[in-house]
Amino acid sequence: MAEAKRAVRSVASGLRVAVTGAAGSIGSKLVGRLAASDDVGGIIAFDARAAAADHAKVAVFRQDIRQPIASVLREYGVNAVVHLAFLLRPGRDREAARRVNMGGTEHVLRECRAAGVRQLLYLSSTTVYGPHPGDPQPYTENSPVRPVRGFRYAEDKAATELMLEAYAADNPETCVTVLRGCPVMGPRSENFVTQAFRKLAAVRVLGADPHMQFLHEDDLLETLELCLLEQVPGVYNVTGEGTVALSEVATVAGRRPVAVPGPLLALITQASWMLRLQSVSPSSGLAMLRWPWLASNEKLAREVRLRPRHTSREALEASPLARSK
Q1: Read out DSSP for 238-279?
Q2: What is the H or E stretch that residue 16 is in?
Q3: For residue range 56-82, what is the model confidence (pLDDT) as tens digits?
Q4: Per-residue b/e over 133-157, b at no fewer than 16 CB within 10 Å?
Q5: For residues 106 and 321, what is the distance between their CA atoms, to the nearest angstrom?
C-alpha cells in the first residue's frame, strides 16, 4: 500500500469522502471543492497518477485502484466514496481497458463493502442511451440503456452501471447514486473530451447536424457535492439547459467542417484508427455525429431541486475549445 503524502487533519465532525480518479479533470476539481466545504471533514484521494495534496483535509494515496483500499477507508473513517477512476480515451487494448473500467469498479465495490462504506456516488454518461435513429427523445432515466455497439466508452459505462445496480440491490442500507452526465465543458476542461471535439469539429456526416448537450464543470461539481451531502439515491441525468447543433460547435471552435457521406467517413475513420493515424475513435463513434442523444434533467430538478446554472452553449463557449479559434 502506498503511503499517504499528508495525513488528514483531525476533524470532530463532517463527511469523510474518498475519491477515486482524484488526479483526473473532474476528480482534482472535486477534491478541491470538497476540501473547501465546512461540511466535509476529510478527503482521501486515490489515483495511479500524482494528485495534489495542498490542503490539510486531503490525504493522497498514489496507487492503482485495483489495489486494496479497505484498510485505508476504515482507518480514515470514510463515509462516502466517489468513484471516478475510468479510462476515457479509447484504447486499442480492449482487455486492458476492461481491467480498469470494469475490474476496477468491481474491486472498489468489494472494498467498500468490506470497509462498511454506506454511500457510493458514480459518474456515468448519457451515451449509455445510444444514440439510435428514431428513438423518442429526450431520454429519461427510464429509457432503455442501449450503448452503440463498439463504442467502448459507453459500453463500459453501461456495464459498470449494472454492477452498481446489483450492489444497491444486495446492500439496501447503502445509498448508491449514479449520475449520467453529458460532455463536460468549462474554462478548466482541457482534456481528452475537448481535444476530441476540436478534431471532430473539422468534419461532419453529410446531411446530419445533430443537437448536443454540454454540462458546465461547475454545475457538475455542485451536483456531485449536493448528492454527497444530501445522500440522494438513484439514477439521474445531469445536463446543461438547451442544446447546441454540431455545426455551431464547429463555429465556436473556429472550424469550417468538411461534409463527407456517412459510409465513406466510416471507412476513412476505421482505416485511420486501425493504421494508428488517429486516436480519437473507431468508426463506431461516428454515431455521435449522426444522431442526437439528448437527455432530460427534469428528474434531478424535481427530486433534488437542482438545475444547472449554465446552458449548454455557455458551457461550450467557456471551454478551451472556444479559446482555440
Answers
A1: E--BS-EEHHHHHHHTT--PEEE-HHHHHHHHHHHHHTTS--
A2: strand 15-20
A3: 899 999 999 899 999 999 999 999 999
A4: eebebbbebebebebbeebbbbbbb
A5: 35
